[in-house]
Amino acid sequence: MKRKIGFVGGSFDPSHVGHLHLGIALQEAHGVDEVIVCPAFQSPLKHEHPNNDKHRLAMAELAVQDLPTWRAVDWEIARKGPSYTIETIQFCQKNVFTRDVQVYLLLGEDLLPELNQWKDIEKLLELAPPLVGCRKRENLRGNPQIDAKLSSGVTITNILEISATDIRQRLKKGLYCGHLVPAKVLDYISLHRLYSSI
User: Is 83 in contact with 76 (CB distance < 8 Å)?
Assistant: First the structure.
């Protein structure tokens, strides 16, 4: 039996409990052995560049520090340029993972509307079958060909409505964020005075 590795991409600007909640729910539901968190250098679908790469990677590392089967990696940050998930998965299969590994994409339902825009999406979903956290199956409404590939990995679970943009604005205003961001990440943000001048 192949070892299951879950892949979570995104800006992680900052890392928050929504990322952890979704990833843990999918990991437990599908028996995923390890979860890899990979901050993007630059999302091809976002015009603005996220905040300092070093800080985003450090926050991701702190967010998963107490989860023994999770780790944060710098693969996309080190490669620089637009971060295409298909290229990262292909790189990992050639250079990082052994043949006894099966990679799965861990996705939240909030990403479903934009999947059609991802580079080589159908090939990506073949290489890394998707595991999708949804409130209800009816939320899989988009491209029928893509939805068919998503369907078998759907997990009905609670989704925490947490926005990194809202967190950054709350931090700018000095509002409490302990219910949204892991304590170690908040300490790091405070230490380095991040998001205070957005």
Answer: yes
Q: Which residue has the tokens 């879950």?
A: 6
Question: For the domain that residue 102 is a member of, what is the CATH number?
Answer: 3.40.50.620
Is there a domain that residue 113 lies in? Answer: yes
CB atoms inside a 10 Å sphere around CB 190: 11
**CB hemisphere CA count around 134 (13 angstroms):** 20
The verdict on residue 188 lying in a domain is no
**Cα–Cα distance, 51 to 48 (Å, whole number):** 9
Amino acid identity of 41? F
Give the span between the Cα atoms of 57 and 70, in whole angstroms: 14
* Predicted pLDDT at 198: 47
Domain count along the chain: 1
**74 domain residue, yes or no:** yes
| C-alpha to C-alpha distance for 189 and 196, rounded to whole angstroms | 9
pLDDT tens, residue by residue, 139-180: 666 666 666 777 778 888 888 889 999 999 999 999 999 999
Can you tell me the distance from the alpha carbon of 21 to that of 30, in angstroms, rounded to the nearest whole number? 14
Q: Is residue 194 part of a domain?
A: no
